[in-house]
Specification:
Blueprint lengths: L6 E2 L8 E5 L22 H15 L4 E4 L8 E3 L14 E4 L4 E7 L3 E7 L4 E7 L1 H6 L1 H11 L7 E5 L9 E3 H10 L7 E3 L4 E4 L1 H11 L4 E4 L14 H7 L7 E6 L2
Parallel strand pairs: 3-6, 4-5, 9-13
Antiparallel strand pairs: 1-2, 2-14, 5-8, 6-14, 7-8, 7-9, 10-12, 11-12
Length: 254
């Protein structure tokens, strides 16, 4: 594992300070070794140092804001960071204030970063299957519009998440998506009896396109398959490991 913090970026978000981070460059040890940013999975001192390194790597001097994620479609407009114990229960953040770094934590779920360069508005969403199906990306766009963004001017990038080849689900899961919209069947590939393989990244990207935004991109990075690079809840579960760590994706206005 590298000693340097790795922050993946995309040209669609070039006007904003941003990064999709993984495991490299952190001080955590054990199963969560690396740049773990979850206080629930580590020594709080390690997590605090890792978060400091995230800010230093992406937007030095910024203040980091993260919510208490609950797999919901709820969005918070951020004007000031809050104490960790006072984090709102939500799964997306938006702001038009420079110097704030919005962060979402993931370990297989899809992080989505948004930017309207013309309006000066950014957003970050945690899109697990439940939040994605419930409309967290749609709600993020609506919250950005409330701050002056225009959908046609918004760029969004889906970051590292579990890929279809790694994401086996049961027929009940598949049925839930089909009942929401029969067209969702295109995001499932048949597997062993009673199971299928789900394309979370593709589904989230299509929800973004359907939302009418100007540009949608995907990084195409599989968190499950890249153990040295990313944390993965499903990989840890398959191995019976007690913890798994979480990576962070961040965006802010300079």
């Amino acid at each position: 594992m590298s000693d340097a913090v790795e922050a993946l970026t995309h040209e669609s978000l070039a006007g904003a300070a941003h990064g999709f981070l993984g495991r490299s460059g952190g001080v955590s040890e054990g199963l969560a070794a690396g740049l773990n940013v979850s206080f629930a999975e580590d020594d709080p001192a390690h997590t605090a140092e890792n978060r400091r390194r995230v800010v230093a790597a992406v937007l030095p001097g910024a203040r980091l804001a993260c919510c208490y994620q609950v797999h919901s479609p709820d969005v918070v407009a951020v004007t000031e960071p809050w104490d960790d114990g006072a984090r709102p229960h939500a799964d997306a953040l938006v702001t038009d204030r420079p110097g704030l770094l919005l962060g979402v934590l993931t370990a297989d779920c899809a992080p989505v970063l948004f930017h309207d360069a013309r309006a000066g508005v950014v957003g970050a969403a945690h899109a697990g299957w439940k939040g994605a199906l419930g409309g967290v990306t749609d709600a993020t766009l609506a919250a950005m519009e409330a701050l002056g963004a225009r959908r046609a001017d918004v760029a969004a990038v889906v970051g590292p998440c579990i890929a279809q080849r790694s994401y086996e689900v049961d027929e009940g899961f598949e049925r839930r998506f089909g009942e929401a919209d029969p067209a969702n069947q295109r995001f499932f590939r048949a597997g062993r009896p009673g199971h299928a393989w789900f394309d979370l990244e593709g589904y989230v990207a299509e929800r973004l396109r359907a939302g009418g935004i100007g540009r949608v991109a995907m990084l195409g990075q599989d968190t499950y398959a890249q153990e040295e690079r990313f944390y993965s809840f499903r990989r840890a579960t398959h191995r019976g490991e007690a913890s798994y760590g979480r990576q962070i994706s961040v965006i802010g206005l300079r």
